[in-house]
Amino acid sequence: MNILNLGELTPERFLREYWQKKPLLIRQAFADFQPVIEPDELAGLACEEEVEARLVVQSPDSDDWSLRQGPFDEQDFASLPASHWTLLVQAVDHWVPDAAELLAQFDFIPNWRRDDLMISYAVDGGGVGPHYDNYDVFLIQAAGQRRWEVGGLYDESSPRRDDAPVMILPEWTAEESWVLEPGDMLYVPPQVGHNGFAVGDGCMTYSVGFRAPSHAEIMRHFTDFVGERLRGEDRYRDPDLDVQANPAEIGDDAIGRLRAALHRYIDDDALLGEWFGRYMTEAKYPELDQAPEEKVTTDELRDFLAGGGSLSRNEGARLAFRRQGEGWQLFADGQCYEGSTQQGPLFASICGGGGLDLGDDTDFAIELLTQLVNQGVFYSDD
């Protein structure tokens, strides 16, 4: 089992001093690191239709870059050059159950912030060039060696190459540089420039990335959510209207009324909380329908569990819960389920990595689990 060791740091100190503030290298953060997937298995995943994969190839002589999207086949890999290429496979945790154990090592950060586990395989010199991300990432060296460089802060206004299919910073200056060995880990905050390339063949790097929706995405999604729930008669009103000097002027009073109308929804914790729970648990790949072909009934599930059957969480499911008033809300792949005050432990166990605790109200629990099975959030081990 891979156990995260932050060295002299506690999770609290890491969050206080490094999270979204500055990079951190931790040597042997995972002593005796055990890969969750072998290189040939990773290549096999990249050949699957539903898996998101990329091949990035650099020409070391001309510094030209090429990008190919999966799925791939054997010929794609056979035609690759001897050096300076990398394979990147997104959301490996959706397909490899053992990845959940690794991701659980980062549970000191809310798991609804987590995006996915990306795994890259690179030969000597392979990388994606100097770039920055808009999210936090932990880079774990799983096999081979990779040199990582970190630089300054970058944003949308920073120059970037317009002749490359991947985002590359042309004005790159490394401020620090390290060669990572298996088990070493580098944390990189958002917008910090970084550049990694394999030192020798057989380089595998695991990237644990976290979701960071933009304010634009938040505003668009929240206003859509609210708009779908409003009545047609909910409109701009001005019963306190006064005569103004120029009828074309938009006065401060009008802006104040508009602000008050918007605050009515922004300040509604129940509305905002439900939207946020739904939004942050939306499936990464909603087009992949995980629901069973035949719906399960409550009685069927009850008999199945009574007979010793067990359920597993879908590897790609996103789950969270929150207290709302006197009760609780469970969020599962964008859906919201309501429960009374006594359902908190049940909701927590559904979201956790251990076994299910059905609690005292087993009827409610079985009914809820039936819905989750039919949604594709849980599946039968048998």
Briefly, what is this?
The protein is an alpha+beta fold.
For the structure shown, list the relevant keywords.
382 residues, alpha+beta, Jelly Rolls, Malonyl-Coenzyme A Acyl Carrier Protein, domain 2, 8-stranded antiparallel β-sheet, 3-stranded antiparallel β-sheet, 10 helices
Structure, described:
The structure is a single chain. With 382 residues, this protein is α+β, with helices and mostly antiparallel strands. It folds into 3 domains: 200 residues, Cupin (Jelly Rolls, Sandwich); 53 residues, no CATH class; 83 residues, 50S ribosomal protein L16 arginine hydroxylase, Chain A, Domain 2 (Malonyl-Coenzyme A Acyl Carrier Protein, domain 2, 3-Layer(aba) Sandwich), CATH 3.40.366.30. Helices cover 25% and strands 24% of the residues. It has 10 helices and 16 strands. It has an 8-stranded antiparallel beta sheet, with helices on one face. A hairpin with a 2-residue loop joins β13 and β14. α5 packs across α7.
